[in-house]
Write a structure and sequence with these properties.
- By secondary structure, the chain is of the alpha/beta class.
- The chain has one domain: Rossmann fold (3-Layer(aba) Sandwich), CATH 3.40.50.360.
- It is 43% helix and 21% strand.
- It has six helices and seven strands; from the N terminus they run βαβαββααβαββα.
- Helix 5 links the parallel strand 5 and strand 6.
- It is globular, with a radius of gyration of 14 Å.
Length: 149
């Protein structure tokens, strides 16, 4: 499983750490969790992953340029090769997050990826419930891959 993230703020970082903790829970066995910053992830890494967790701040109503870059540099390599793979999404924004959700849903729909858990979208400082939702997201995506071939 590949976590592709852009976590420049303390709030995004806290969400990322909760997602990672859920994905690497000791009860989830046989799933290798690889994490890569969105600006450095390669198309090859995205091709070899069995599932994805995507994380980004929402700036000006859209996903970060870093996450957009990750898709821009690998979209055509992923197209047709990764159809049906599960993904999850966590976003942090102070307002106007709908455009970012629409963007990721459009990109992943074009790739044929399957939304495997509800998106986690947090506004303001993430509270305990928000961080628990992030943990649950990471755990859900990873657990879904436990029995994958």
């Amino acid at each position: 499983m590949l976590i592709v993230h852009h976590t420049p703020s303390p709030h995004c970082q806290a969400m990322f750490e909760a997602v990672l903790a859920g994905a690497t829970d000791p009860e989830i066995e046989g799933v290798e969790v690889v994490r890569r910053p969105a600006l450095t992830v390669s198309a090859a890494e995205m091709l070899t992953a069995d599932g994805y967790l995507l994380g980004s701040p929402v700036n000006l109503g859209y996903i970060s340029g870093a996450l957009k870059h990750a898709f821009d540099q690998s979209y055509y390599q992923l197209l047709d090769s990764t159809r049906g793979r599960p993904f999850g999404l966590f976003l942090h924004g102070n307002e106007g997050t709908e455009g970012a959700v629409r963007a990721v849903d459009g990109i992943t729909s074009g790739l044929g990826w399957q939304k495997a858990a509800e998106h986690v979208v947090v506004s303001g400082a993430p509270g305990k419930a928000d961080l628990q939702a992030c943990w649950n997201l990471g755990a859900a995506i990873a657990a879904g891959l436990m029995d994958a071939p």
